[in-house]
Write a structure and sequence with these properties.
The complex is a heterodimer of chains A (416) and B (169). Chain A is built from 13 helices and 18 strands. With 416 residues, chain A is of the alpha/beta class. Chain A folds into two domains: 256 residues, 2-Layer Sandwich (Aconitase, domain 3), CATH 3.30.499; 147 residues, Aconitase, domain 3 (2-Layer Sandwich), CATH 3.30.499.10. In chain A, the strands form five sheets. Chain A has a five-stranded parallel sheet with strand order 4-3-2-5-6, with helices on one face. A five-stranded parallel sheet of chain A has the order 16-15-14-17-18. In chain A, strand 9, helix 7 and strand 10 form a beta-alpha-beta unit. With 169 residues, chain B is an alpha/beta fold. Chain B has one domain: Aconitase, domain 4 (Alpha-Beta Barrel), CATH 3.20.19.10. Chain B has a seven-stranded mixed sheet. In chain B, a hairpin with a 4-residue loop joins strand 6 and strand 7. In chain B, helix 6 packs across helix 7. Classes of the chains: A alpha/beta (416), B alpha/beta (169). Bound molecules: iron/sulfur cluster.
Amino acid sequence: MGKTLTEKILGAKAGAAAPGDVVVADLDLVFLQDTTGPLVVRQFRESGFTSVAKPDRAVLFFDHAAPSPNRQLSNDHVLLRQFAQETGSVAYRVGDGVCHQLVAENFASPGDIIVGSDSHTVTAGALGAFATGMGSSDIAVALALGKTWFRVPEAFLVNLEGDFPRGVSAKDLVLYLIGKLGADGATYKALEFTGSGLANVTMSQRLTIANMAVEAGAKVGLFPSDEVTREFLVSRGRGEKYQQISPDPDAHYERVISVNLGQLEPMVAFPHTVDNVYPVTAARGIKVQQVFLGTCTNGRLEDLAVASDILKGRQVYADTRLLVAPASREVLAQAMDMGYIQTLLGAGALILPPGCAACLGLHQGVLGDGEACLSTANRNFKGRMGNPEGLIFLASPATAASSAITGELTDPREMT
Amino acid sequence: MSVELKGKAIKLGDAISTDLIIPGRFAHLRSNLPELAKHALEDALPDFTARVMPGDFLVAGKNFGLGSSREHAPLVLKMSGIGVILAQSVARIFFRNAINQGIPVVLCDTGKIEDGDALNLDLAGGVVHNLTRGDDLPCSKLPPLMHAIFQEGGLIPYIQKYKEFVVEA
Ligand code: SF4
């Protein structure tokens, strides 16, 4: 029988791999971030390890507290920088951007196996990398050994056809899928994407989709490689890393889901779970005090372009604040070159440093009691944005920009 | 390590995220674990740290531990005294993290357990005994590698002993 993409990638690195097998595989990249990283360092030291297996493939990111808002997190940053120096690992700087964006820009390639101490490590699946998040102990051991164990997951196939209608994007697709599957509908499974519609899904949009695979419980969200992948790698100066990988036509999938992109509409996840999804038409009129455009889900150049297009010549509603955090330094620089930042600033937006910003509630945009935020992030759990009395709605950059103008949840198809 | 565990049930609902177990707003306490642990489950069950006793069972519904990869989530539960986690289903990363911290995570029909019930887990036998109600609930067993990691008390002691992952062919 043919193999899924998951079986192929794990099989190539760890010998034959069938669903349910436990395999030990060599890792192409092990990374950590600044809120889970300090525990990684402590577990690493407690284990008695003193060196990392592949220092040039061991990377530390400073993104969740960027820059640090208090002494304790600043001291955590000191600890992480010391660790990078001691072990010769690669350390990015505060302000370089969100770990998953930087992994996509600089590291992930088709066929890679990547683990990171962050659940959205799945983002790199957009590039055909088997990438998944783990906790601090696992990452400590992965750094030291250069390998880790995996249970080979069964896979679901998501078959995409057609093209997105105006005002609809990858975020709407992935919210729709999570609504359909449920927040635990793909637990322990690989979500693999395929279909004639893939050619219409840009790399930026694939990153959005793969990023949120974990919100359905999946271990990975994997795309095959194609021209879109090749062009992205070439544009990043990594063209030689391209390899064509795809599942066998007769591979076995536990479940097949078909989506016609042309029939999708803008979607919104209501508080407090990501699978609490409705069309934006059912959310019209809900007031929002904060709109947050950014994160590893939707803080890329394309996302800022969409928002800037909508906000051009318009103003953010007086009682609403629009926070914009570009996903990386490069995204910010390009958005300035393109004039998007100037447009957003002129419309009344606040531009935050590249990083996680308001996403996880430790700084930069904590909600007040009873306040509602429309965010382009991936999670709306109670307490996520720093206050259990806050409400978080999730939607696309187009819906976010449109809602920033009106101060209430707004269908972007009415704004263009 | 003993595989028979006893304790009282502390019940929770479905979809308890890692943001509810230990919110991001306490990220500055992650290098001060005793302080961090004081906030365990604060937004879901405000009296949790006051009532939890060593060995208690956390008894959750569906998709327990969804969300972030923060291993601080099982860690603060362990520090609070939780000895066992029972749930109808558990998110993948949390499951692995809990075992890595030496806390058994077992799937069973938690709908048959009420808050305060006296429970006894026979991990090797795959049964949860509800002593209060006289029920025997079949439960999941750990796959061999995870069982070995759990038996050593977690991933760090495991790796100190074996130096690598030992997987049967
Ligand atoms: S942007 Fe949000 S979801 Fe992404 S890594 Fe940062 S905190 Fe996590």
